[in-house]
Design goal:
mainly alpha; about 0% strand
Length: about 90
């Protein structure tokens, strides 16, 4: 599941990049969707594989990038404190 969420996030991220210069509202919305799916990938991977697994670390690294750290801060979310039910309940 984590890999599927990660791949879906990439699709939204690509869509955001494509609209970045022409439609700022659509771009921000797509980055927000990408953030949500990266977050789901991270939480599922952390719980299934552990916090130190290479895939979990990779997903956490994406969330630490400036774009996604901005979303996390704006939503007042602590990525490390999220649990599966909380994140997947919004799916």
């Amino acid at each position: 599941m984590a890999k599927l969420y990660f791949n879906k996030a990439i699709v939204y991220e690509d869509a955001a990049a494509e609209t970045y210069e022409t439609d700022d509202t659509a771009s921000v919305a797509n980055y927000g969707r990408a953030y949500d799916y990266y977050k789901k990938a991270y939480v599922v991977s952390r719980e299934a594989l552990g916090a130190e697994h290479s895939k979990t670390v990779r997903y956490r690294g994406v969330l630490a990038q400036d774009t996604y750290a901005w979303f996390s801060g704006r939503r007042k979310e602590n990525i490390n404190a999220l649990v599966t039910n909380e994140v997947l309940g919004s799916a």
